[in-house]
Design goal:
The complex is a heterodimer. Chain A is α/β, with parallel strands linked by helices. Chain A is 34% helix and 31% strand. In chain A, the strands form 3 sheets. Chain A has a 6-stranded mixed beta sheet, sandwiched between helices. The radius of gyration of chain A is 24 Å and the shape is elongated. Chain A starts with a strand and ends with a helix. Chain B is 80% helix and 0% strand. In chain B, helix 3 packs antiparallel against helix 5, helix 3 packs antiparallel against helix 7 and helix 6 runs parallel beside helix 10. The interface between A and B is large, with 36 and 35 residues.
Chain lengths: 313, 262
C-alpha cells in the first residue's frame, strides 16, 4: 500500500527562554500512516500537538527525532519536491492585506512556479470553484471571514496538490458557508483523489467528511479508526430506552453479543449496546417472545463528541 | 529556468503591489528623502559651505536615502508576510531565499533608483549640484555599490527576524541609522575615534562613499576603495546567504516560523 503520510516515533520538543531553558514536549512519539487518496481527520484537545504535527508535515518545523515520509519521500532530504506536491490551508486565514483575491492567488501560483498560461487558467478555475469571481478585485482586508477562508482553500489548490493539509478549515464560519466549504472539500477528494489530513474541533464535520479519525492527546496518537470502531473500542455504544408492560425476566439479555449493560425496573429498561442497528431487531424479537407490550422506545446514539470527550479525559 | 524566473517574479509582483497600495511606502520614496535632502542642503547653504564641501554633504544624504529605501524592499519581502501573518504560506511554497533576495532587490533598485533620480534632479535645480559630473560610468558603479550595500542590510534584517521574531523588526529602520554614524555620511571617517574607524573599515558603504567623493576632489581615507568595497560587499552577501539559511533552519527548529504566522 502507498502512503501519503508515514510517521514513526516522531518527537518534537520546544525550548524557550535564553538563560533558563524551559522545555515543552509537543510530540512524544507519534506513529501514523495515512494511505494515499484517503481522507483522515486528526482530532485532539487544545495543545495536543495537532498544529505541530501539521507544521512538521509541511516543513515549517523540523522534527527532532523519528521518521517522516510524505508522498513516499523523506521530509528531511526531499523537502523541495514534497513542497511542490502538497499544500496547506488553515483556519483564521491570513494573507497580504493590500492584495486582491486574484492577486493573492496569483502570487502563490507564482511561488509554486506555475507558468503564465497555466496560472491564468488555474486562477479562473479556482475563482469559479470557490465562487470567488465576484470578489476577485477586492482587497483581502475588505473580505468577510467566509470569503477569506474560501481564498485560503483556493490558495491551497494552486499547485493541484496530491496531499492537502487542512487546519480547522471551517473555524468561525457561518453554518451555511461552512457547509459549502465542506461540500467543496468533499467533492475535491472524490473527484481528484487528493489525500487529505484535516484537523477540526467540529465533530460533526469530522464524522461527515473523514474516512478515519486519528485521536491525538499529549503528543501521542491514542486511537485510529472509523468513528464506529472508536465508539466500540471505548464501549460508548448506543442507549436503547424501552417502556413496557409485562413480566420481563431480569436476565433476559444475558450473554447477548454487543450488549454492554442493562438497567431495568418494573416498567422500563435502558440497554447499552455497541450498535443499535445490529442489536435492536434481536432485542425486539426477545421482547415479543416474552409477550411484552412496548409503550415507548427511544434510541440515543453516542456520537464522535462522546468519543472525543472520552479520549480527552 | 522558467520556473526560477516565475518564483523571482512573485516577489517583484508582491513588493510592487504593496508599494503601490500603501501610503507609507510612497512616503519612503518622496517625503522622507526630500525632507532629509532639503534640510541638510539648506543647512549647507546657510553655512555657506565651499562647493566641494556641499558636494560631500549632498552625496552623503542622497546615498543614505537610496540605501534606506532599497534595503527596506529586501526587508519587506519578509516583513509584509510577517505583518500579515502569512509567513507560513510563503515558506511552505517551493520558492527559496535566492528568489526572495533577487525579486525584492529588483523592486529595491526600482524604488531606490527613483529616489536617486528625484534627489539628483532636486540637487541640480535647487543647489546647482550635478551628480553626473564624474561621468555616467562611475555614477553607475557608485549606485551599484549602494544597491548591494542595501541588499546586505536587508538580508541582515531577515536574519534578525528569523532569529528573534517580531522584536527584530525595528532593525529595518535602525540599522541604516547606525551606519550613518560610522560610514561617514555627513563627515569624513578620518575624524572618528580610532576604534569607530575600525568599524567603518568593516562596512562596504564607507568605501563606496569615499570612491564617489574622490571624484569630486576629496582625498579618501583608505586606499583601493572601489576594489575593497566591491570585494567586501560580495563576501558579506555570500556570508549572509549562508547565515540566513542557517537562521531559517534554526527558526524551523525553534518554531519561530509558526510564531511569525500567529
Amino acid at each position: 500500500m502507498k502512503f501519503a503520510i508515514e510517521v514513526e516515533n516522531l518527537r518534537k520538543t520546544f525550548a524557550s527562554g535564553w538563560l533558563r531553558k524551559r522545555k515543552k514536549e509537543a510530540l512524544r512519539g507519534v506513529d501514523l500512516a495515512v494511505p494515499q487518496g484517503a481522507f483522515w481527520c486528526l482530532l485532539g484537545p487544545n495543545g495536543a500537538g495537532k498544529t505541530t504535527f501539521l507544521s512538521i508535515l509541511s516543513s515549517l518545523i523540523t522534527p527532532e527525532q523519528g521518521k517522516v515520509r510524505v508522498l513516499g519521500r523523506d521530509i528531511r532530504r526531499d523537502g523541495a519536491e514534497i513542497a511542490r506536491r502538497m499544500n496547506l490551508s488553515s483556519g483564521h486565514a491570513n494573507f497580504l492585506w493590500s492584495m486582491t483575491v486574484r492577486e493573492n492567488i496569483e502570487y502563490y501560483a507564482m511561488l509554486y512556479g506555475l507558468p503564465s498560461k497555466l496560472r491564468k487558467h488555474r486562477i479562473a478555475e479556482l475563482l469559479d470553484l470557490f465562487d470567488l469571481a465576484e470578489f476577485a478585485g477586492i482587497r483581502f482586508e475588505e473580505l468577510s471571514t467566509g470569503t477569506k477562508q474560501k481564498l485560503s482553500l483556493a490558495k491551497s489548490l494552486v499547485n493541484d496538490p496530491e496531499l492537502l493539509l487542512l487546519d480547522e478549515p471551517t473555524v468561525g464560519l457561518d453554518p451555511d458557508v461552512a457547509r459549502r466549504i465542506r461540500d467543496t472539500i468533499q467533492r475535491l477528494h472524490r473527484e481528484k483523489g487528493t489525500s487529505i489530513l484535516m484537523t477540526t474541533h467540529n465533530m460533526r464535520e469530522a464524522e461527515i467528511l473523514s474516512e478515519r479519525i486519528a485521536f491525538i492527546k499529549e503528543g501521542r496518537i491514542r486511537a485510529v479508526g472509523r468513528p464506529r470502531e472508536l465508539k466500540r473500542e471505548l464501549r460508548l455504544g448506543d442507549t436503547i430506552s424501552i417502556s413496557f408492560r409485562g413480566d420481563l425476566p431480569a436476565s433476559f439479555l444475558e450473554g447477548m453479543n454487543g450488549v454492554y449493560g442493562v438497567q431495568q425496573d418494573n416498567a422500563s429498561c435502558r440497554i447499552l449496546v455497541d450498535d443499535h442497528h445490529e442489536r435492536l431487531p434481536f432485542i425486539l424479537d426477545l421482547l415479543t417472545n416474552h409477550r411484552i407490550t412496548i409503550h415507548d422506545l427511544r434510541i440515543q446514539e453516542s456520537d464522535l463528541e462522546d468519543v472525543f470527550i472520552a479520549y480527552a479525559k | 529556468m522558467q520556473s526560477e524566473m516565475t518564483k523571482t517574479r512573485a516577489f517583484v509582483f508582491k513588493n510592487l503591489i504593496m508599494t503601490r497600495r500603501n501610503v507609507f511606502t510612497l512616503f519612503e520614496i518622496l517625503f522622507w528623502p526630500l525632507v532629509a535632502f532639503l534640510s541638510v542642503g539648506l543647512l549647507a547653504e546657510f553655512a555657506e559651505l565651499e562647493p566641494h564641501m556641499k558636494a560631500f554633504i549632498l552625496v552623503g544624504v542622497v546615498s543614505m536615502s537610496v540605501v534606506q529605501v532599497c534595503q527596506l524592499d529586501v526587508s519587506y519581502a519578509l516583513l509584509y508576510d510577517v505583518w500579515s501573518k502569512a509567513v507560513k504560506h510563503s515558506l511552505i511554497a517551493p520558492a527559496g531565499l535566492r528568489h526572495l533576495l533577487a525579486g525584492s532587490l529588483i523592486v529595491g533598485i526600482i524604488r531606490g533608483g527613483s529616489v536617486f533620480l528625484i534627489l539628483m534632479g532636486a540637487s541640480y535645480l535647487i543647489f546647482d549640484f550635478d551628480f553626473t559630473a564624474p561621468g555616467v560610468g562611475p555614477l553607475c558603479l557608485f549606485l551599484l555599490g549602494l544597491f548591494l550595500s542595501a541588499a546586505m542590510v536587508g538580508l541582515f534584517v531577515c536574519i534578525l527576524v528569523f532569529t528573534f521574531g517580531l522584536r527584530a523588526v525595528v532593525a529595518a529602520w535602525s540599522l541604516v541609522s547606525l551606519m550613518l554614524l560610522v560610514c561617514g555620511i555627513y563627515y569624513p571617517v578620518s575624524i572618528l575615534p580610532h576604534w569607530v574607524m575600525f568599524l567603518s573599515e568593516l562596512i562596504p558603504l564607507t568605501y563606496f562613499l569615499e570612491y564617489f567623493r574622490r571624484l569630486y576632489g576629496f582625498e579618501p581615507t583608505f586606499s583601493h576603495v572601489l576594489a575593497k568595497g566591491s570585494l567586501m560587499v560580495m563576501v558579506y552577501l555570500i556570508l549572509e546567504l549562508i547565515l540566513v539559511k542557517a537562521a531559517l533552519r534554526r527558526a524551523k527548529k525553534t518554531g519561530m516560523l509558526l510564531k511569525l504566522s500567529e
